[in-house]
Write a structure and sequence with these properties.
Chain lengths: 266, 232
């Protein structure tokens, strides 16, 4: 049975893992390859690097990070942030990444998803959707929630409906969706399971839940209520509040299929 | 010590070469990358990696003149491991783009039936259908990483080593003599994946020793002592 994935996300700035709140107060937390390897040993099912380096400083730094990581952490690696063309995606994949995640660039030019999927296969194309809940127009119970897509780390709004955009992104070629609730991101108030379910029940591709994890119980609800196939978190792992295996234990206890690291023997 | 097993990974533009080459090196193989037929000489085994579409994979193999040398290699009974797309193209044809593939194994690659999600992305359990040295030290039902929408349906049940269920069960590992195929990515499957690659390298070493006619004499097993030569 397909296991539900637990995915630590690492923010990378100029080749170093950083942590901070919404791109401010960044502190150096170490080497991405080293941390990725540690997470892999702890049972991470996949690693996501989010490159937050300003575009003009980017250059080859991230490629070097990807190369070093793929050389020592033998788990899937996704890179998001700053990839804007088929050529840039090719470079990232050649460096050792398995998938590239597109966010602002896909909203600006949706055909990018198609071009990349045609070239590398949809399994390598992740569409990241940052969504913010719209105030309910009608306060009545049972009114389905609505969310708008935001870009540039939440600083810009669009007129895109998040669910509509999700379905379109899949039609265009995205093989996976990384759905982040901007209302919950960094708040540790739990995932927006309504948002997740609204998308996951309408697409056939896997949905990765992101934004709001406070503890292992939230991973369980993201899957059970949000219908997510995978769950991503950053700070609870970085700050060592919980380990990947703490999360998996909770998921297994709730009856969810997870990959336990003991099974691989050694 | 035995000389390291030399493995050439075919680079036909369809795979993440870093992970597979580093993973093979991590289990003790001497790894090279072959982009043309001449680079297949002097090695003990070929690995055909791959992610993407069957049609473009065949085009690229043809463009690089690797198609016939690869067929000859496998027909000569020399060790070969196909991974994911590199596994699928070993069969007669693929429904993905309706293309003819290498025809080294009987059967056709078809889309996963009744899959709840497609592509099938993630860690799924590999249920062994019989004992084989390729899976020595790997628990039955252990999870491996998959990324695909199609899988081959072998005509010959006797080559099947394992099945995996996503919707319906599909074949996730085969072996016929020294030809091995895996639908999952061992190079992305952490310790379990490295174990399978290590077993493969051990099988190649055993095959090499057997063909050199000196299998029994060496006391040193090169770190892969658990591998039984008999299964190959």
């Amino acid at each position: 049975m397909l296991a539900r994935r637990v995915i630590p996300c690492l923010d990378v700035d100029k080749g170093r893992v950083v942590k901070g709140t919404r791109f401010v107060n960044l502190t150096d937390e170490g080497d991405p390859a080293e941390l990725a390897e540690r997470y892999a040993h702890e049972g991470a099912d996949e690693i996501v690097f989010l490159d937050i380096t300003a575009a003009h400083e980017r250059r080859g730094t991230m490629l070097d990070v990807v190369r070093r990581t793929a050389s020592r952490a033998f788990v899937p690696l996704t890179v998001g942030g700053g990839v804007r063309s088929v050529e840039e995606m090719r470079d990232v994949l050649r460096a050792g990444a398995d998938k590239v995640s597109f966010n602002t660039a896909a909203v600006a030019d949706p055909t990018l998803l198609t071009a990349c999927a045609e070239r590398f296969g949809s399994q390598a194309v992740v569409c990241a959707i940052d969504a913010r809940r719209l105030p309910q127009e009608v306060g009545a119970d049972g009114t389905p929630g609505r969310w708008e897509v935001v870009t540039h780390g939440g600083r810009r709004t669009t007129d895109l409906d998040a669910v509509t955009w999700a379905m379109r992104a899949v039609d265009l070629g995205a093989g996976e969706l990384l759905v982040t609730s901007m209302d919950r991101d960094g708040t540790r108030s739990g995932f927006d399971t309504e948002l997740l379910a609204a998308i996951a029940t309408r697409v056939r591709v896997p949905v990765i839940a992101s934004g709001g994890a406070a503890g292992p119980a939230d991973f369980v609800t993201a899957v059970l209520d949000g219908k997510a196939d995978a769950v991503l978190a950053a700070s609870i792992f970085h700050r060592r509040m919980f380990s990947v295996s703490d999360v998996k234990e909770a998921m297994a206890a709730a009856g969810l299929p997870v990959r336990r690291i003991e099974e691989s023997g050694a | 010590m035995n000389a390291a097993v030399r493995v050439a990974v075919l680079d036909y533009g369809a795979a993440n070469m870093v992970s597979i080459t580093k993973a093979l090196a991590a289990v003790g193989a001497e790894v090279s990358v072959a982009t043309e037929p001449s680079e297949m000489t002097g090695v003990d085994a070929i690995v055909v990696p791959g992610v993407g579409a069957a049609g473009s994979a065949m085009d690229h193999l043809r463009e690089r003149s690797l198609l016939e040398p690869l067929r000859d290699w496998v027909r000569a009974g020399r060790p070969c491991l196909g991974i994911c797309l590199g596994f699928q193209v070993l069969f007669d044809g693929s429904d993905e783009g309706d293309v003819e593939t290498l025809g080294l194994l009987a059967g056709r690659t078809v889309e996963l039936a009744d899959a709840p999600t497609l592509p099938h992305i993630g860690w799924n359990s590999v249920d062994l259908t019989r004992q084989h040295a390729l899976f020595d030290g790997v628990a039955d039902g252990a999870h491996f990483y998959f990324v695909h929408s199609f899988a081959p349906a072998p005509a010959d049940e006797s080559i099947v080593l394992a099945r995996t269920t996503h919707g319906r069960p599909f074949v996730s590992a085969v072996a016929r003599g020294s030809l091995y195929g895996l639908q999952f990515h061992p190079e992305k499957s952490s310790e379990a994946g490295l174990r399978v690659l290590s077993n493969f390298v051990g099988l190649v070493a055993a095959a090499r020793a057997a063909s050199a006619g000196s299998a029994a004499s060496a006391g040193c097993s090169g770190g892969d002592g658990a591998v039984s030569a008999g299964a190959a």
